Amino acid sequence: MHGDRDEPVKWRKSSYTEGESCVEVATFDDRAMGVRDSKLAASPVIPLRARAWAALVAELRE
């Protein structure tokens, strides 16, 4: 997956990583994020629009 400038996306691990269970997130552009399993770099990516990402993060923080 690439960002809006056709540069490779930089994935980063969640700050809530616990042992083997973790996810990575990436910013594709100012309107979309991606989430994937950090153990499987070739795993499917779940794309989320900015509003859906914000709602997911808010829900997880509760």
TrEMBL record:
Domain DUF397 stretches = 10-61
Q: Which InterPro entries match?
A: DUF397
Pfam families found in the cross-reference section: DUF397
Query: Which superkingdom, per the lineage?
Result: Bacteria
Protein name per UniProt: DUF397 domain-containing protein
Which species does this protein come from?
Embleya scabrispora
